[in-house]
């Protein structure tokens, strides 16, 4: 509000003062403007409206120049678009990211950008919200000059040099918005955007607003922009997306049950890292590290795997170099078939086959080969980090670094700490994650950590639903309509049915050839095991007939409630156990690692939106119907939250307070 007031007062003064011949608008401390204060959204927004003042800038009879350094995002870029000229520092980033917050650029962005750079380019920038470099902005035509020197000084010089020149062509509102074959263009774009949006409404609304720029005169287009923004501003999706924006930052401020925290634990400097194992995960991890400028030693002891792995890594790095316009020689990867090659690194990431005996042996060897202060990390997706730590001479230097495939693409990193992990080890892994562009979340050690532990009840429910009569397509359709990129069955096919089979075998659940539907005292569905054993797809219908199961019609409501609420219920148990520090950690794990639709804010935020009492009632209902399924038993924390009046999500921690932590 204070910034808005400042802009209004100063612009009015500068525009009306006859002594002032030209005006430069700049930001402070090297940043032009990051846009509106997102924290103000959802509250009463006080202070003067900006758009009339922005129009006063445009219609001024003296040149107004934006001096853009750092960032010009959202409302900040819209302000710059009202200026007559934009002078930009080469390191600046520009964009209209409102769509990522569930909104649209409603200070004229959707009406003015297409007039300036054309409809297709504006559609791309506004519907994706991507930030562009100054060079790209210049190429697209929405900045006038890119410089490397002091931007404000250059802008002042420029502003003085254009005094007295006509400003007619510089007023974007007066420009036409040509769009040949507009109907066909918008039809095609709308189809693509809907597909990509997976149920998110803001991207679709952005297209409608830009269409108004083509079909309506400027003033009416501006009005339409306001009307469309009003439909988004208070929407549940906007709330969810804004929650994600802040949660992504909250998770970087990690804490451990011991009280150790991000702001009191200093990471160790890391420049040289080793990756052990060049399977799918090891390759992606190597690429991610090398791209971030780290020196990497990649070790693979099996010759064929080494040849294939080396080729795959080189290809990926070659493509990355082409994209960046640099030589692939900038990436420093050394390959070795000997474990001794890791002797001088500061951090090792083990990414070998998911086999505890193999990993135990490897950690023992690493512990004697590496320097005493080397961090030993495991990419295991479920195995006991504490047990691995116990194989080494310095268990405090062992943490999990759980990447998600493909590791050079997926944004999530779970940093797993055990009771003996040193805060500095966690800080170092978190910092390394940040450096390689990951959203890193610190979690406690338990079977499956946070993400995979919650996936277990979800996947079991998906299978139970098929036993009871749903087809895999019905289950997947409900989940995909909810917003997941892939339903459970398509995802299992893609990641390989044998992956889960191996985990179930390790848990002693698989009994080859046996059809029994109770294992370890609880309901079990062996369908997935049968598929793997027979090396083919078992038709659920035949299976149901042999099991004497009577199939029934199952609707998408039941699919969603059973799959999602059981996953959410496990999330509450994780909070109760102190495995995750807060609901934001769980939500970011699911948004960045498991395809949970961001516009639904993550599973725990979704539960808060649905209503905790409704989630509890549904779980109680299904638990009565399926008493042999323990994961449907509502967690203590869920009950406690409901009996505390279902506080908003940012106040859950007050109810959790004392987790029953084993850490
Ligand atoms: C010119 C007039 C100004 C007011 C305009 C109002 C006009 C109203 C009309 C139009 C409405 C427009 C809608 C918008 O503008 S929506 C906002 C669009 N902007 C964004 O989405 C930018 C979001 N921020 C970022 O992308 C980054 O934070 C960036 C600015 C690039 C800086 O990145 P980095 O240096 O990595 O720092 P952090 O991301 O860690 O951020 C540092 C802390 O600042 C908080 N932050 C950042 N941006 C905002 C914001 N727009 N509103 C509120 N808070 C913001 C961020 O949360 C960090 O704080 P903390 O660590 O405490 O979480």
TrEMBL record:
Major localization listed first in the record, in broad terms: other
Reactions accelerated catalytically: (3S)-hydroxyhexanoyl-CoA = (2E)-hexenoyl-CoA + H2O; (2S,3S)-3-hydroxy-2-methylbutanoyl-CoA = (2E)-2-methylbut-2-enoyl-CoA + H2O; (3Z)-hexenoyl-CoA = (2E)-hexenoyl-CoA; (2E)-hexadecenedioyl-CoA + H2O = (3S)-hydroxyhexadecanedioyl-CoA
Highest taxon above the source species: Eukaryota
GO annotation terms (biological process): fatty acid beta-oxidation
MF GO annotations: (3S)-3-hydroxyacyl-CoA dehydrogenase (NAD+) activity; delta(3)-delta(2)-enoyl-CoA isomerase activity; enoyl-CoA hydratase activity; NAD+ binding
UniProt KW Oxidoreductase keyword: yes
Domain 3-hydroxyacyl-CoA dehydrogenase C-terminal: 448-539, 559-646
Pathway: Lipid metabolism; fatty acid beta-oxidation
Keywords: Fatty acid metabolism, Isomerase, Lipid metabolism, Lyase, Multifunctional enzyme, NAD, Oxidoreductase, Peroxisome, Signal
Keyword Isomerase: yes
Ranges where the 3-hydroxyacyl-CoA dehydrogenase NAD binding domain occurs: 272-445
Pfam families assigned to the protein according to its UniProt record, in alphabetical order: 3HCDH, 3HCDH_N, ECH_1
Subcellular location: Peroxisome
Cellular component annotations (GO), alphabetically ordered: peroxisome
EC number(s) reported in the record: 1.1.1.35, 4.2.1.17, 5.3.3.8
Coiled coil, from the record: none
Subunit structure: Monomer.
Xref: PANTHER family: 3-HYDROXYACYL-COA DEHYROGENASE, PEROXISOMAL BIFUNCTIONAL ENZYME
Family: Belongs to the enoyl-CoA hydratase/isomerase family.
Name of this chain's protein: Peroxisomal bifunctional enzyme
Higher taxonomy: Eukaryota, Metazoa, Chordata, Craniata, Vertebrata
């Amino acid at each position: 509000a204070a910034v808005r007031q400042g802009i209004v007062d100063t612009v009015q003064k500068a525009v009306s003062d006859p002594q002032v011949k030209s005006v430069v608008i700049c930001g402070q401390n090297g940043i032009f403007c990051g846009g509106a204060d997102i924290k103000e959204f959802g509250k009463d927004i006080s202070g003067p409206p900006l758009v009339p003042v922005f129009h006063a800038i445009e219609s001024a009879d003296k040149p107004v120049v934006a001096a853009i350094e750092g960032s010009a995002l959202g409302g900040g870029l819209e302000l710059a678009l009202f200026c007559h000229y934009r002078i930009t520092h080469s390191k600046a980033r520009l964009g209209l990211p409102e769509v990522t917050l569930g909104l649209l650029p409603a200070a004229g962005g959707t009406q003015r950008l297409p007039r300036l750079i054309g409809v297709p380019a504006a559609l791309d920038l506004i519907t994706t919200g991507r930030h562009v470099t100054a060079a790209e902005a210049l190429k697209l035509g929405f900045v006038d000059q890119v410089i490397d020197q002091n931007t404000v000084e250059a802008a002042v010089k420029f502003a003085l040099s254009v005094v007295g020149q006509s400003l007619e062509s510089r007023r974007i509102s007066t420009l036409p918005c040509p769009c040949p074959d507009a109907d066909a263009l918008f039809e095609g774009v709308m189809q693509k955007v809907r597909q990509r949006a997976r149920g998110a409404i803001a991207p679709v609304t952005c297209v409608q607003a830009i269409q108004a720029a083509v079909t309506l005169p400027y003033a009416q287009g501006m009005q339409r922009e306001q009307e469309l923004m009003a439909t988004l501003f208070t929407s549940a999706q906007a709330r969810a997306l804004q929650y994600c924006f802040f949660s992504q930052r909250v998770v970087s401020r990690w804490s451990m049950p011991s009280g150790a925290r991000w702001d009191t634990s200093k990471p160790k400097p890391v420049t040289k890292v080793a990756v052990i194992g060049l399977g799918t995960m090891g390759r992606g991890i190597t690429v991610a590290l090398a791209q971030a400028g780290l020196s990497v030693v990649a070790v693979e002891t099996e010759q064929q795997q080494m040849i294939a792995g080396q080729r795959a890594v080189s290809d990926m790095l070659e493509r990355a170099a082409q994209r960046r316009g640099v030589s692939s020689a900038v990436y420093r990867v050394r390959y070795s078939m000997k474990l001794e090659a890791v002797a001088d690194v500061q951090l090792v990431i083990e990414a070998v086959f998911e086999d505890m005996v193999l990993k135990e042996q490897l950690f023992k060897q690493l512990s004697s080969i590496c320097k005493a202060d080397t961090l030993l990390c495991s990419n295991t997706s479920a195995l006991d980090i504490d047990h691995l730590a116990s194989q080494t001479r310095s268990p405090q230097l062992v943490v999990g670094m759980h990447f998600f495939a493909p590791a050079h693409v997926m944004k999530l990193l779970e940093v797993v700490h055990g009771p003996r992990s040193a805060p500095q080890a966690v800080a170092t892994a978190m910092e390394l994650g940040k450096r390689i562009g990951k959203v890193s979340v610190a979690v406690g050690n338990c079977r499956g950590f946070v993400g995979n532990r919650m996936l277990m009840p979800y996947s079991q429910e998906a299978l139970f639903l098929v036993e009871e009569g749903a087809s895999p397509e019905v289950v997947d359709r409900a989940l995909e309509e909810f917003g997941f990129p892939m339903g459970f069955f398509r995802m299992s096919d893609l990641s390989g049915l044998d992956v889960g089979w191996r985990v179930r075998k390790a848990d002693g659940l698989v009994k080859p050839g046996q059809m029994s539907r109770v294992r370890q005292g609880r309901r079990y569905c062996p369908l997935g095991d049968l598929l793997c054993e027979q090396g083919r797809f078992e038709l659920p219908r035949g299976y149901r007939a042999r099991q004497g199961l009577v199939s029934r019609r199952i609707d998408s409501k039941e699919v969603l409630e059973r799959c999602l609420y059981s996953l959410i219920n496990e999330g509450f148990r994780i909070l109760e156990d102190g495995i995750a520090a807060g609901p934001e950690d769980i939500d970011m794990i699911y948004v960045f690692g498991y395809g949970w639709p961001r516009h639904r804010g993550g599973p725990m935020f979704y539960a808060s939106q649905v209503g905790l009492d409704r989630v509890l009632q549904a779980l109680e209902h299904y638990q009565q119907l399926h008493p042999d399924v323990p994961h449907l038993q509502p967690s203590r924390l869920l009950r406690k939250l409901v009996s505390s009046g279902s506080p908003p999500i940012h106040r859950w921690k007050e109810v959790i307070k004392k987790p029953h932590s084993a850490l």
